[in-house]
Amino acid sequence: MHPIIEGIIQAINLILTGDPEVFSIAALSLYVSVLGTLLACTWSIPAALALALRKFQGKRILNGLFNAFIGIPTVALGLYLYLLLSRAGPLGYFQLLYTPNAIIIGQSALVTPIIVSFATGALESVDPDLRTLARTLGASDRQTYNVIIKEAFWGLVLAILAAFNRAFAELGVAMMLGGNIRGLTRVLTTAISLETARGDIALSIALSFILLGMVMSLSIAINLARKTSQ
Amino acid sequence: MNRSAITKLQASLLIIVVICGIAAGTYAYYSMIVPAAKTRLIVSTTTSLYETGFLDMLKTKFEAKYPNMNVSFISQGTGLAIQTAMRGDADMLLVHAPSQEYPFLKGGYGVNRKIVAYNFFIIVGPSEDPAGIKGKSPSDAFKAIRSAGLNGTAIWVSRGDNSGTYTKEVSLWKAIGLDVKQLRQEKWYLEAGSGMTATLKLADEKLGYTLSDTASYLLNFNNHNIVLVKLVEGAKSMLNVYSAIADDPRNANMTKTNFDGSMMLIKYLASDEGQQLFADYGVSQYGKPLFGPYLKLLQTKSDPLGNDPTQLIQWISDYAFFEGSECPQQFRYQAEGLYSTQTPVPVLLVSIVAGVEQRKAAACIQSLKA
Amino acid sequence: MSPHLETHDIRREYDSVLALDRVSIGAHLGQVTTIVGVNGSGKTTLLKILAGLDTPTAGDVLIEGHEANPTQLRTHSTMVFQRSVMFGTSVYNNVAYGLRIGGVSSREISQRVKSALTVVNLDGFERRHARKLSSGEQQRVAMARALSLKRDVLLIDEPTANLDPANAMIIERAIKDSAQSRAVLLSTHNLPQARRLSQHVIHLYKGRVVEEGEPSRFFTNPSDERTKLFIEGELQF
Fold first, then answer.
1. β-strand B92-95 against B39-45: which pairing, if any?
2. What is the CATH number of the domain that holds C35?
3. Chains contacting B with at least 3 CB pairs below 8 Å?
C-alpha cells in the first residue's frame, strides 16, 4: 500500500483509539496557547481601551506599530526571546528556557499585537453617540467604558479567537523557547516537525489532523463572531 | 429568529472550545506538576543519538533508577549543542565531535569528559553507485565522488550544520586536501542544513551520496524511509565516538547548572547498567547494537560491532583522546570514581620527585612528549 | 421667581468657528422653554452645554443661582437627541439603564420604567428588542428613558423632527406632562409646536440670542427684524 495512504489510516487509528501520546501533545498545545492568549489579554485589552477611548500624543504611531507586528515571523520573535530568557541573558535568573512557561510567555508576546489591533478597531467602531447617551444618563467614565465594551463584545471575542488561532498554530516560538522536549514542551506543531524529520509519517499525520481540525473550528467560530458583531 | 440562532450556535461553540481548553489544560498541568517537583537535568545532544530513539529509552531507565530526576534532551547539531551548553542553558553535553569538544574543555566550559560509546560513520548512496565507490577506502571514495560530481554524474549531500557528522565529513575532505568552503560552491555539493534523517531523505530523493552514522542509517533503512545502500564502511578515519561532558559549575555562565545531576547521568552511562543499554539497543532489530559500549570494550576486550578490539581501542585513543587521556587532569572536577584511580607511573614519579601536583606533573610530561 | 437653570454670557468657540456668543438665558421649573432658529444657529450646541456634554469656552451655567460644572450638569439634567441611540438590549433594560447605574432599587426601577413606558404609549413593550423597533417607537423609548430618571432639567433636541404625526403627538403629550415638575428646554423648527408647547421662546441666530418672549407676542409681534423673517420662512443664513 502506498506509504502515505498507510500513514493516513494509521493516523485515524491513533486518533480513534485515543493514543495517549497524541492526546497529551494536543492537550499541552491547548494548555500553552490558551494560557498564552489569556496572559496577553491582561495587558492587551486595557491597551486597546486606552488606544480607542483616550486621547493622547502618538496614538497613531502606536496603532501603526501594533499593526506592523501582527505578522512578525515567529522564529525571529523566538530568537529574541531566547536570548532574553537564556541563563546567560537578562532574564536568566528565572530559568524559564525549555519549560512550558517559556512558550506561554513567548506566545503571549506573539499574539499581543493581534489582540490590541483587532480590539482597538472593534472599540473604535462603536457608535460614538452611544458614549454620549451613556453620559447623559449619568454614567461615569468607567461605566461608559463598560457600555462600549459591551457593544464591542463580539469584536473583542473575535480578537481573542484570532489570537488563539495564531498561537495554537505557530511553530517558531514553541520550538525555540520550548525545545520540543517529550512530555514537557512538545506541542502539536513542534511534534509534527520532529516526527516528519524522524520519518514517523503516521504520527505526523495524526497530529496534523488534530491541528487542522482545531484551526478550522476556530475559523468557523471566528466567522460567526464577525457576522454577529455586525 | 435568525439572529439569535447564530448567536446561540456561536455561543455554544465558544463554550465548547473554552471547556476543551480548560479540560486539556488541567490534564496537561496535572501531568506536568509531577515533573515540576523533580530536579531537572537538561542535556544538549546530537540529532543522531536523538532520532534513533536511544535517548527516550535512556531517559526512562535513568529516571526509573533515580525517580527524583527529570531529564530533558535537547536535540541540536553538536555545534549548537555546545553553544547552548556554553550559555549555561544546558547542564551537560552528549556529543560526538572531539575536535569541538576539546576547545569546550580548554575554554573552561566543560569538565569530566567521559567517552561512553562509539560506532562508525558510513558512506551511503544509490545502489547504482555512479561514482563506483563500493569497497573503496574513505579517501579514495571521496576522491571518486568529487570527480564524478564535477562530471555531473554524482551528487553529494552534506549535513551542512556544525554537527559531529559534518565535522567528520570536513576532516575527511581535508584528508584528501580539499576545503569544504571551496566545495560548497560546486554544483554537485548540496547542503541539507538539517538533522541526519532529513539529510538521508534528501540524499535518497536526489540519488546522492552522503555520510551517515550507522545508527541513523540502519534506523531509516529499516523503516523504509530510504533505499540508499552502504558503500564504504569500517575504517579508522570513519570512527565515531560519543562523549559526555558536564558543564563546569565554576564558569560564570554556568553557576545555575545542575552539576550533580550531570555527574549522576555521566556515571550512569559509564556504569555497567548504562553500558548494557548501549550493548542491547538495536540488537533485536538489526542483529547488532547501534552503539558500541566503550567501557565494556575496555573491560572485556570484545567488540559487538565485529571489529578487532585491540586495534579499535588504539584507534579510539588516537582519534578521541586529548593530551593522552579521554579527559586530562586539569579538566576534571569532583570526579571521584569516574576515572580509573591508577595514575600512570611516570606522572606519579615526577610528582613525588619534583614535589608538584600530579596535574602539573602530567602536563610537564605531556609537554616533554610534544 | 428666579430661573432654576440659567446661563451667563456663554461663549463656545471651536475650530475658529464661533458657535455661541454671549448667550444668557433662563429656564424655570414647571415651564417649557423653546429655542428656535435656523440650522447651524447653535441650538444643539447650547442644549449640549446645558446637559453638561460640552464645555463652554467662556461663561457660566447656574443651577438655582450656583455655578455648575459639566459633571454636575450631567447628573442634574438629561438629554434626548434628535436621532436616538438604543442599547442592544430590551426596551426595559434601555429605560432602566440610567436608574441602575444611579443605584435605584429594582422594585423602584420596575415601577418607574412601567409608568414611563405608559406615558409614551409603550405598555407591554418591555421585552421587545429595542433595536428592532421602528424609529418612532425608538424615539418614544428614548423619551421614556429620560423621563424615568426624574431629573429636574429635561433637554430635547428636535423632539419630533423625524416622526410621523401619530408619534409626534404622543411625544408632545409626554413633554407637556413632564413639564409639570421640571424645567424643559427644547429646540425645534416646528413653529406651531413651539407655540403649542412653550411658555417662553428664544430665537437663536448665528449663536446669539436675538429675541425672546412669551409665545403669543413672539409669534404675532416680534420686535427683531430677523425674527420676523424667520417666522415667515424668509430668513437667509
1. parallel
2. 3.40.50.300
3. A
